[in-house]
Amino acid sequence: MGNSSLSLLKEPKKRKLLFSAGLSWMFDAMDVGMISFVVAALAAEWSLSSQQVGILTSTTSIGMVFGAAMAGFLADKYGRKNILLWTLLIFSIASGFSALATGFIMLCLMRFVAGFGLGGELPVASTLVSESMPVQERGRAVVLLESFWAAGWILSALIAYFVIPHYGWRMAFIIGALPAFYALYLRRAIEDSPRYKANATRKLTFGERVASVWSSEHRRTSIMLWVLWFTVVFSYYGMFLWLPTVMVDKGFSLVRSFQYVLIMTLAQLPGYFTAAYFIEKFGRKFVLVTYLVLTAISAIWFGYANTEASLLAAGISLSFFNLGAWGGLYAYSPELYPTKVRSTGVGLATSFGRIGGVIAPLLVGVLKQNGTSIEFIFVMFFVTILIGALGVLLLGKETKGLELVD
After folding, report:
1. Backbone angles phi, psi at 351, to 5 degrees
2. Three-state DSSP class for 79?
3. Mean pLDDT of the chain
C-alpha cells in the first residue's frame, strides 16, 4: 500500500479514527448486504414474486435517499460526530425490529427506517475522515475507510452461509441490531474534525447551503457528481442485490449461490487496496475512470457468462473493479466542496445517487418478471457505468493534493 498509508496507520489518533469510523461503515455494509441474502431466502418462504423482491430491496434505498440528504444538512449544522452516532443507532435498532416482521408490508416499513440511518451514516463518516486527515493522505484514508464495506459484505455473506440456512432469516436481522451497542463506544472514541470545529461559528441556513452547492462556482462539479453518484449506485444495487438470485436463476442451489457470492465478495478487498494505492499516485480521475470502464466490461462478461468458471471469474472481476471505483468516489466527493457546505454537497449528491438504488432493483424485478434476459439487463448496466466514467472524464476536476480554501 506504500509508505504513506503505513505512516497514516502509525499515528494512534488517526488510526483510531479510521478504525472507529471504519467499523461503523462495516456494520452499515453488513446490514445492506444482509438484505440481498435475506430476500433470496424470503422469496421461497413467503412465495414473493420478482416484483415484490424488487420492492423490498428498494425500500431500504428509498430510506437511504432521505437519510443521505437529511444527515448531510444536519452534519453541517450539528457536527459530524453527533449525526454519525444517531444514524448508527437508527439503522441497527430498525434492523432488530425487522426480525419481528410478521408480513411483507411491516418488513418494508422497517427496512425504510433502517435505510434512513444507513444512507445518512456513509456520507457523514467519509466527510469526518476526509476532514481529519492531512491533504497528502486524505484520499488514501477515505479509500481505506471504504474497504471496511467489503468486510461488512463478507460478514453478511458469512451470516447468510452459516446462520440463515440453520437459524432462519430473523436471526440475521437480530445480529444486525448489535451495532447499537457499538455506538456507545463510538461516543467516547471519536471527536469532530478540526476543520468543522474551526468553521462552527460560520453556519449557513439550509437554503444558503443548497444555493452554494448550485452556485456558478460549484455547478459544473455538482452536475458531474450527481451523474456519477446516480450511475454508480444504480449499477451497484441493480447488480449486487440481485447476485444471489441471478446465481439461482443460472441453475445453482441457494447455498451454492451464497458460497459463490462470498467468493466474489472477497475480491472487493484487493479492489479497494489497489485503488487506495493508485489514488495518491495517479489521482482521483484516473482511478475513477479506469475502474469504472473495467467495471462496465466485467458487467457485460458476467451477463453473458454461462459456465461455472466464467461466472465466478466475471463476478470476481466485477467486485474488484466496482468496489475500487466506490473507494475513489467516496475519496473524491468531500474534496470538491469547502467545509461550510461539504456535508450538504456530498449528502445531496449521495441522496440523488440513492434514487438510482431505488430504481435499479425495482427495474430488474419488473424486467425479469416480463421475461427480459439477464444478458440485456447487464448490457443496461454496462451503458450506465460508461456514462458515469464519461462524466468524470469530461466534467471532473483533479483534486489530488489540493486544499480547498474555506
Report:
1. -60, -45
2. coil
3. 87
Cell numbers at 282, concatenated? 495517479
Task: In whole angstroms, give the CA distance from residue 218 to residue 404.
Answer: 12
Beta strands in 9-97, from DSSP E residues, in sequence order? none
Residue 184 contacts by C-beta under 8 Å, 6 or more apart in sequence? none
DSSP 328-395: HHHHHGGGGS-HHHHHHHHHHHHHHHHHHHHHHHHHHHHHHHTT--HHHHHHHHHHHHHHHHHHHHHH
Round to whole Å and give the CA distance between 35 and 309.
Answer: 26
3-state secondary structure 186-211: HHHHCCCCHHHHHHCCCCCCHHHHHH
Structure confidence at residue 1 (pLDDT): 46
The answer to whether the pTM exceeds 0.85 is no
* Spatial distance between the Cα atoms of 295 and 322, rounded to a whole number of angstroms: 5
Residue 63, exposed/middle/buried by CB under 10 A (0-12, 13-18, 19+)? buried
Type of residue found at 253: S
Q: Which three cell numbers stand for residue 87?
A: 444514524
User: CB–CB of 248/254 below 8 Å?
Assistant: yes
One-letter amino acid of 55: I
Sites in the chain below the pLDDT cut of 70: 1-10, 200-202, 254-255, 401, 403-406
Are 305 and 314 contacting, i.e. CB atoms less than 8 angstroms apart?
A: yes
Cα–Cα distances (Å) from 49 to 10, 365, 368, 376, in that order, read: 51, 8, 10, 20
Q: Among candidates 179, 31, 173, 44, which has minimal Cα distance to 106? A: 173
